[in-house]
Amino acid sequence: MKDSEAKTCAGMVRGRKGGGYRVEREILDEERLEELSQRLDISQTRAPLAYRLKNSLRCSVSSLKRRVVGCLPVLYWLPRYSIWDYGMPDLVSGISVGIMHLPQGMAYSLLASLPPVFGLYTSFYPALVYFFFGSSRHISIGTFTVLSIMVGSVVERLAPDANFLIVNGTNATVEVKVTERDLYRVQVAAATTVLAGLIQVILGLVQFGFVGTYLSEPLVRGYTSSAAAHAVVAQLKYIFGVSPTRFSGPLSLVYTLVDVCMLLPSTHLPTLLISSVSITVLIVAKELNNRFRKKLPVPIPVELIVIVVGTLISYYTHLNKNYEISVVGEIPSGLQPPTVPQTSVFSEVVVDAFALAIVGYAISISLGKTFALKHGYKVDSNQELVALGLSNAVGGFFQCYSVCASMSRSLVQETTGGKTQMAGVASAVIVLVTVLKLGPLFQDLPKAVLAAVVFVNLKGMFKQYSDILTLWRTSKIDLLVWLVTWVSTVLFNLDMGLGASIGFALLTVIFRTQRPRYSVLGHLPGTELYLDMETHTQVREVPGITIFRSSATIYFANAELYLEALKQKSGLDITKMITYKRRQEAKQRKRERRAARRARREAKRQEKEKHIILLNNYNYCISCQGLCIWKERENSTVFVMPETPHNSWVYLKGIDPETSTLGSMSDLQDGDITTLGSSSEDTLSRDLERVSLGSLGKWTWDIHSIILDISPANFIDTVAIKTLRNIFHDFGEIDVDIYIAGCQMVEQLEQGGFFTDISKERLFTTVHDAVLYCLNHRGAGTSSRYETTVVRFKDYYKHETLKCLNALAALLYLIHSYQRIWHMTLC
C-alpha angle 671/674/679, rounded to 5°? Predict the structure, then answer.
């Protein structure tokens, strides 16, 4: 039993390089395959809607437990948490990340155009919420550069400084009501964050976690690089100590940069000195951290050290009073009570909230999947969307702004040994202690130091500009997506730039499916493989068969292009050939009607005239209205005449036609007869018709079958089904058979009515099956048809020669007749 199965299914593999296999089976078309495999109908494989709805509403203890654990992943890993194994690594990792939260939270709040303390709030509440609902064990939730810039663009658009100006009565100067402005900006940021969180929760509940896949890696990297450009321009005013005009809308980055450049002559030198020193110290310290990171148990908290040292110097030297250096200002101690967000601004920030939701989710899920793949666990994309949404929605009630995973903090949390989200809780505790007890100590911190922290932390995003060279060598289309994303985001701001870049990325997909690679396949000798003949030199064309393949699926956007490419590759101009064929068929019907009328006239004439008038050696045949040439053969003379008009020919034996007998033309030998009429005019016309039709196509007489390899296609629509049906019918009119190989959408073809007049025997599982079928059924006729065509060309030229001889005989007869008449006249 096992031996027979082995012989039927496969042979033996011999070695790695010289191995081979041998399969013996019958040629399988779709109808035979369904018969052997017993394919079920698609309606049988899918349960009824009522049953599925009832099953989804059915509740049991196991299903309830599974759903609760799915919504609260902490219930899965917390009961299994080992303090001895995970406690100390999570504590060390949490302290390291918490120390990073402090400077980044205060610095990134400047990017969001909010007071620094709200950056600390944002680093505390969302991390606690994600602890319960998040499925990733290594990402650090909190402030992030890109989202901070996006929030800042929203609050500056809805709460610009121009709306909070007052005139100082003492010196008649215009001042900004900073307290009222900051309060309203916090309300706008919180409302935007809550709305973005609600959008994320809704998308997660409807299983829309795949939305992040529409943000390709080149798009995300181009977007973050352009966001870094926005961040740098936003920090220039703190680095140089200038006050440029705030702009919003398209080209605001360009206008701001131009304004900063114009204000460079009025740079505040003490602020520039502090910024330069801070940037230099941070860069050198971070480089030392990277060089000795394998020897250090935890990274040195360089940012926190710089902030502490800057605060101490500013406090003891009174930089704000003596040198007019801008500082953070009052930081309230303690936590703020929750407040209901201002829903009146929802309509104005809905687009920005959606952009924040998508960008934040894309960054978080990409980092989460990276760490999950490295450490061997699974991240649920839909649950991550819900967890991130709840972190934003709950944090918005506590005056936080939008959060997502931070790349730098997540890397620190993973490299310092963090195992679970208990590290996130430890970092939140560090932030909480700072907010409750240490917050007022940072009131004298110069904003230039925070700007330096932001500037140095953007180094990783600046390195992404090397993607241009990499993408130039690997993929020009991805490079175009990167550049369009960067340019559109820089010129049209972060919200409109994101929409434009996503639209352009989707258009590239459509264009690539519209312009796929069309190829004609050839056979690789000794195998069952069929490869592109243009890119492989050792493949050979199968005689009489064209194998056509498209690298993309067939649908409404490229169905017409698919048909045009098939015509071009096969060399058959179907439209011209069918038009010419129909025209020739109409002419043939007209000739047949004319021949029928002539036959009726000839039949009537034959009834009236029963004899043949013989004129000496040249004889005028009344029945055929033509000339019959005779010549002597031994004791008999041969007279050739048509038995019936335009039909077979007979001849008369004997000298006297009155006493001669009829004989068949097959009895004569070559050279015994010459005719003056044409007995095969219609047949010749049909031959010439085929010759003329063949001249329109390159391989009309060589190709008898075309195989469409649609194995790359994964779906098909009604337009494509109609196109395939037209291909079958149009090529069938010129006697070229069409077959399909590698079709994976048989159910869709059935639903589209493709098999109403096309048999499933035209579908084959592989290209090799289709080729073998064509060779077995029509391969032998290729050479014979080609030879028949050559013979018909010979008959055509022979007929033309006979016509010339007949014309010459008629001319001789006329000359002889005129001579006799002239002789009789003289006599």
Answer: 120
Bigger pLDDT: 634 or 573?
A: 573
Q: Which of 140, 719, 816, 762 is nearest to 421 (CA)?
A: 140
Give the 3-state secondary structure of residue 798.
helix
Please, are residues 401 and 192 in contact by the beta-carbon 8 Å criterion?
A: yes
When pLDDT is cut at 50, 70 and 90, the band that residue 568 belongs to is confident
d(CA 200, CA 392): 9
Exposed (0-12), middle (13-18) or buried (19+): which is 700, by Cβ within 10 Å? buried
The length of the chain is 827
DSSP for residue 212: G
Query: Which two structure tokens, joined as six digits, stand for 618?
Result: 């040249």
Tokens of 659: 């006493």
629: which 2 tokens? 């040439």
Q: Which amino acid is at 97?
A: V
Dihedral pair phi/psi, residue 643, rounded to 5°: -70, -45
> How many beta carbons lie within 10 A of that of residue 8, not counting itself?
10
Q: Show the tokens assigned to 769.
A: 């099956």
Residue 164 contacts residue 180 (beta carbons within 8 Å): yes
Q: How confident is the model at residue 631 (pLDDT cuts 50, 70, 90)?
A: very low
Specify the long-range contacts of residues 784-791, CB closer than 8 Å, at least 24 apart. 785/701, 786/701, 786/702, 789/690, 789/691, 789/694, 789/701
Q: Is the pLDDT of residue 25 over 60?
A: yes
- Rounded Cα distance, 551 and 159, in Å: 52
DSSP state letter for 263: T
The one-letter amino acid at 722: K
% of the chain surpassing 70 pLDDT: 78
Closest CA to 274 of 328, 314, 230, 233: 314
Buried b (16+ CB within 10 A) or exposed e, 794-812: eeeeebeeeeeebeebeee
Q: Measuring CA to CA, which residue among 186, 146, 87 is closest to residue 494?
A: 146
Contact between 304 and 445 (Cβ < 8 Å): no
Q: Which of 549, 560, 492 is nearest to 519 (CA)?
A: 549
* Region for residue 481 given its phi and psi (left: phi exceeds 0; alpha: psi -120 to 50; beta: otherwise): alpha
Pairing of strands 632-633, 636-637: antiparallel
The alpha-helical segments, DSSP class H, found in 334-436 are 346-375, 381-397, 407-415, 422-433
Strand order in the sheet with 518-523: 530-532, 518-523, 545-550, 705-709, 737-741, 763-764
Sheet containing strand 661-664, edge to edge, reads: 639-642, 649-653, 661-664
Structural tokens at position 433: 């202690």
Token pair belonging to 202: 């809704």
Dump pLDDT digits (tens) for 397-446: 999 999 999 888 898 888 888 899 999 999 999 999 999 988 888 889 99
Question: Which of the residue ranges 35-49, 249-263, 726-740 would you say has the lowest mean pLDDT?
Answer: 35-49
Query: What gap in Å lies between CA 256 and CA 692, rounded to an integer?
Result: 73
Residue 360: name the closest of 390, 409, 400, 402 by CA.
402
E runs forming strands in 588-735? 618-621, 626-629, 632-633, 636-637, 639-642, 649-653, 661-664, 705-709
Spell out where 561-671 has E strands: 618-621, 626-629, 632-633, 636-637, 639-642, 649-653, 661-664
E strand or H helix at 173 = strand 173-176
Q: Is the CB of residue 521 less than 8 Å from the CB of residue 549?
A: yes
Question: CA 511, CA 271: separation in Å to the nearest integer?
Answer: 51
Q: What residues are paired with 589 via a beta bridge?
A: none
pLDDT at position 353 over 80 = yes
Q: Which residue has the higher pLDDT, 133 or 661?
A: 133
User: What predicted TM-score, i.e. pTM, was given to this entire model?
Assistant: 0.71
**pLDDT averaged over every residue in the chain:** 80
* Closest residue by Cα to residue 631 from 598, 594, 668, 582: 668
Q: Mean pLDDT check: name the lowest of 311-320, 383-392, 777-786.
A: 777-786
